[in-house]
Amino acid sequence: MTCHTGPVRIDLHTHSTASDGTDSPTELVQAAVRADVDVLAITDHDTTAGWAEAAAALPSGLRLVRGMEMSCEGRDEDGRPVAVHLLAYLFDPTAREFANERERLRGERVARLRAMATKMAADGLPIDFDAVMADAGQVVGRPHLARALVEAGVVSSVDEAFAGPLSVRSPYYVEKEDTPLERAVEMVNAAGGVSVIAHARARSRGRLVALDSIRELADRGLAGLEVDHPDHGGSDVDLLRSLATELDLIVTGSSDYHGTNKTIELGQYTTAPESFDAIVARASGVPVLSAPPGDAMTVEDGTAVEDGTTQEATGDLRRIR
Ligand code: AMP
Ligand code: FE
Ligand code: FE
Ligand code: ZN
């Protein structure tokens, strides 16, 4: 139970073991309760595979927003391609074209991580890609390789791995073919979802998406901007906030919690209730979930979307007891 009194705490960007977090969806929900979070979004990279477990574990008092963080390609100020993450909330997971694109993105992730691991092994680094895959869940990312590098003693921390062998400037870095950002916004909208650009000014990750392309996207159905984020400096927070005002975009704030893969705590950055309400008002894919006192939630079998080794969660929920 979230028993605290005080402002409603809303964290709209978190990861589980369904992608590159270290908490299972059940543990993520439990951690949200401990962190006094009232509204939690589960936003694993390129998958909805954690939705069903998070929903099944939902205690009364905590509301669950089912979402995802989609790997996209945008343009920087010079027109060069740049990785952009698009948060997608409350979309219909059965929308076929969108589901197919998620599956393609997951395939890109595996192929790209294999290519990076192969380059490292060829260079004499003690990295075994099959072992990395065996330890990973449904969606792999550089954090999985980071942990392997730490365990092998190549680097002393995940941060050091990202600053060195895993950085976009490293000779081991390999690109993947992400979804064009405008296409991604269209697909999220077509599935009844709400799209928010994640950490648009996270400078440590590489080049930044052009502000003018955010302006264009705002005309083409983008709903919001993640403004408060651990990777944003103060002046960039101010810049994004005024851009959101200029474009009438929803402002969000979130921790981007990854369990022990990052040092950030759940609920360390939060979203205002008005912004959350605006997201819910725009969504028509799936509802926000909550379990009334004393009740548990369950997932109906319903339809399911194959994602190779696992199933993406698509069933809707009903109350039991
Ligand atoms: P990928 O999705 O494979 O390109 O890997 C990027 C992921 O690594 C993102 O989810 C980031 O949250 C995560 N990441 C980026 N920098 C760091 C860092 N310094 N420490 C831990 N995780 C990071
Ligand atoms: Fe991540
Ligand atoms: Fe991200
Ligand atoms: Zn994230």
Topology:
Layout: E1 10-11, H1 25-34, E2 39-42, H2 51-56, E3 63-75, E4 81-89, H3 96-122, H4 129-135, H5 142-151, H6 158-163, E5 179-180, H7 181-190, E6 194-197, H8 211-219, E7 224-228, H9 234-247, E8 250-253, H10 273-282, E9 289-290, E10 296-299, E11 305-306, E12 311-312, E13 317-320
Parallel strand pairs: 1-2, 2-3, 3-5, 6-7, 7-8
Antiparallel strand pairs: 3-4, 3-9, 4-6, 10-13, 11-12
This protein binds adenosine monophosphate, fe (iii) ion (2 copies) and zinc ion.
Residues 69, 85, 198-199 line the site of one fe (iii) ion.
Give your account of this protein's structure.
The two termini are 18 Å apart. The chain is 34% helix and 18% strand. The chain folds into 2 domains: 10-104 and 176-320, Alpha-Beta Barrel (TIM Barrel), CATH 3.20.20.140; 105-163, DNA polymerase, domain 1. With 321 residues, the protein is of the alpha/beta class. The model is unreliable at 298-311 and 313-321 (pLDDT under 50). It has 10 helices and 13 strands. Strand 3 and strand 4 form a beta hairpin. The strands form 3 sheets. Strands 1, 2, 3, 4, 5, 6, 7, 8 and 9 form a 9-stranded mixed β-sheet that branches. Strands 10-13 form a two-stranded antiparallel sheet. It is globular and about 55 Å long. Bound molecules: adenosine monophosphate, fe (iii) ion (2 copies) and zinc ion. Zinc ion binds at residues 13, 15, 69, 256.
